[in-house]
Amino acid sequence: MDSLIYLNNGLAIKSKKVYSAKGVVYGKCWGGGYGSYASQDLQSSSLKGLMAEAKKGLEKGWLDGGMGFDSLKGALLEIEAIETIIIKDKAYSRSEYTTEFIGDLTEKEQDFLQEQLYND
User: Fold this and answer.
1) Could you tell me how far CA 2 lies from the centroid of its own chain?
2) Residues 116-119: contacts with CB under 8 Å, at least 24 apart
3) What does pTM read for this prediction?
4) How many CA atoms lie within 13 Å of 30's alpha carbon, on the beta-carbon side?
5) Around Cβ 17, how many Cβ atoms within 10 Å?
6) Of residues 93 and 10, which shows the higher confidence score?
């Protein structure tokens, strides 16, 4: 989301925040058993929009980026929020990171996905 802020001295500051996510999905394999695979990279101008897109991808079966699971059960997403401000045509950015689980995962499955995400 873009915004324009005016300071007392008349200086205008442009501000923009975008969200991106990548992670791992957990799904049922066609031959039986469960496994994980890298998720599709997602981007949105809002956290709410990003999470809605991730949940839609999980529900529709495309969040796995084409791995071809029989069905998807859940995912662990690492979300980066990038805020950029522009002052006198010079851009300054900062990032914040969070993680979110989506889907119906057991604690053991969540632990498995954390190992997959952080051990690669």
Assistant:
1) 20
2) 116/24, 116/36, 116/76, 117/23, 117/24, 117/76, 117/78
3) 0.84
4) 3
5) 16
6) 93
